[in-house]
Design brief:
This protein has about 140 residues and is of the alpha+beta class. The protein is about 35% helix and about 20% strand.
Length: about 140
């Protein structure tokens, strides 16, 4: 049954008019941390700055997955990968990630990073399962501007 989901699911670029349903998906998926940086105007700016790099998975007209991706000209970054719990383990998350990596490669980006909460064991298992490596040599620091 899960392969049926993937066969009927298509991956398309994330458009700002999908924001409300994507945000609702992020809110109901564990491991996705939202902040004021995820307000509609911020996401619209992010999508415009990184055209064709973020994607949604559609099963019919329903948004069942989403991912944000962009780059700084040197490295790619993935944020907020989410797949609706009813559609998991069907390859949708992996497909969303592959679309991002292909988009980054198309503009010459050779390495991609992502952010994951330490306690997100399911997320960590997913990322490791598709070949990502947990870095021990760097930590993230942040500051409000």
């Amino acid at each position: 049954m899960l392969m049926k989901f993937m066969q009927k699911t298509i991956i398309v670029p994330f458009q700002i008019d999908q924001y409300a349903v994507v945000r609702a998906l992020w809110q109901r998926c564990e491991g996705v941390g939202l902040s004021s940086a995820d307000a509609p105007e911020s996401i619209q700016f992010y999508l415009a700055r990184n055209p064709g790099m973020s994607f949604v998975a559609l099963h019919g007209a329903e948004v069942v997955g989403a991912i944000l991706c962009g780059h700084d000209g040197r490295r790619g970054y993935i944020h907020h990968l989410a797949v609706d719990s009813h559609y998991r383990r069907a390859g949708i998350g992996r497909s969303l990630v592959e679309h991002c990596l292909q988009a980054l490669q198309a503009v010459g980006i050779q390495k991609c990073h992502l952010f994951i909460f330490h306690e997100n064991d399911n997320g960590r298992a997913f990322w490791e399962g598709i070949g990502w490596t947990w870095r021990q040599d760097v930590r993230v620091m942040s500051r409000q501007v």
